[in-house]
UniProtKB/TrEMBL annotation:
Record-level GO cellular component terms: cytoplasm
Broad class of enzyme this protein falls into: hydrolase
Family, similarity comment: Belongs to the PRA-PH family.
Localization terms from the record: Cytoplasm
Protein name: Phosphoribosyl-ATP pyrophosphatase
Gene name of the encoded protein: hisE
Gene Ontology biological process terms from the UniProt entry: L-histidine biosynthetic process
Database matches in InterPro entries: HisE, PRib-ATP_PPHydrolase-like
Amino acid sequence: MAQDIGGALALLEAVVKERLAANDAGASYVASLAAKGRGKIAQKLGEEATETIIAALTEDDAALTGEAADLIFHLTVLLAERGIAWGDVAAELARRHGTSGHAEKASRP
Ligand SMILES: N=c1c2ncn([C@@H]3O[C@H](COP(=O)(O)OP(=O)(O)OP(=O)(O)O)[C@@H](O)[C@H]3O)c2ncn1[C@@H]1O[C@H](COP(=O)(O)O)[C@@H](O)[C@H]1O
């Protein structure tokens, strides 16, 4: 059943931040990934993006949904490790709301 995306992201972000603060790599995948460094988190995000693309082009809806969740999870870890909140991303999306991508591109210097 579909869930509220804002609530799901807020809950995931809170757990990820807690895992980063606890820094227990043995007990937590998030902590173990962070211990490998920002480059490894970014690499995982890239892998999940590629897997999402492949699923979109060749796999069924359930597979694409799973890959999308993996992608968002790893983006959440990367943002949290950088100290950026989903609320910051939401604010940027809200700032852009109502401005056509065509109009924005045409206004660039
Ligand atoms: N949503 C997720 C989530 N999605 C995917 N993953 C893990 O992400 C990892 C990467 O997936 P892969 O298939 O690429 O794994 P892999 O082939 O072993 O990859 P490598 O790391 O070896 O390169 C797997 O271990 C998945 O289980 C997740 N791990 C955790 N969460 C959330 O994060 C919370 C905290 O998790 P812990 O830090 O483990 O407590 C959990 O309660 C969940 O809510």
